[in-house]
Amino acid sequence: MRAPSGYRVGSPACHRHDRGSRSAGFSLFELLLVLIIIGALVVVSAGRWGGWTGDLDGAADTLAADLRFAQSRALHNITSYRIVFSDSDRYYIQREESEDVFGDAAFADGSIEREFPRGVQRSGPAGDEIRFRYPLGNLDEDATITLSRNGAQRSLRVLAETGYVER
Hints:
This protein is an alpha+beta fold and 167 residues long. The protein is built from 2 helices and 8 strands, in the order ααββββββββ.
């Protein structure tokens, strides 16, 4: 290649026009990177929108699983378990004080604490406690727990005879 007049061969200015076949624009990598960043921002900000109920559904699923967990423990560990709601935004899974023949390692400190996601509120049950009695894992009476957030609601019902959790 011949250098234009006034330029030396091998100088940076001489090679400036070697990429003339490449059109101006963004590469595929740059476009994908921008799309990934926009997607991440949408996911992060989606929880802040008023109509988002993902936290509410997740809280209802977690509470249902914890209720089933407490009932299962009451059936198998020769002691009663209970869910105690201390505030509208947290609860504890507790083992009743008695001889636990099998030694329940999950309750070495006495209870497991759970907190609902920010903005999720609870109402019910009466007495703020659900107690699964050994040996059948049942309750004294049916219990209904309602979780709410921004006008949306999810209800859980625990049947007294069987301890079954309906969602």
